[in-house]
Amino acid sequence: MTADWKPTVPPQSTVGATAKKAAAAAVADGRGPGVPHRPEQLPSSHQGLTEFLRRILFEIPPGRQEAKKEEETEGITIRLKPLPHRRAKLSLVEVMRDVALEDAAFAEGVLPLLLEFMTSRGQSERDACLVAVTRIRKAYPALRQPDGAEVTQGK
Predict the structure, then answer these.
(1) Tens digits of per-residue pLDDT, 11-44?
(2) 55 domain residue, yes or no
(3) Where are the beta strands (DSSP E) in 1-155?
(4) Are residues 136 and 143 in contact, defined by beta-carbon separation less than 8 angstroms?
């Protein structure tokens, strides 16, 4: 994405005079508000974020999936599938990795958590954490372990 990229405006309802004018104005502009700006501060302290991320990674059980839900909109039935817990955790690890690559202070706080979660029994979770730790350590050599010892994974 470039800094000036702006998404297209989704189609609007054209029922009524006011809606027709708003839709015509949106088509004339042809662009949306763009990418939201990054906030100046984090929503919480680094310790609070680390505790929140730890809770999500370690306390969400790989439990049974809920039954598929169905929504009916204007005679169309839409089946909603729940997001598997494993996929949610993998996505969280990827987001943590991406944010840590942009912010050194966040990387310093989240690296021990990723190292701890690397001992997970799930192979895909271990692999995602290994990739995240490797990329963070490559981006910030100061965060490498001082004695050069690497984390070994037990099976």
Answers:
(1) 656 667 777 777 676 665 555 566 667 778 878 8
(2) yes
(3) 69-73, 76-80
(4) yes
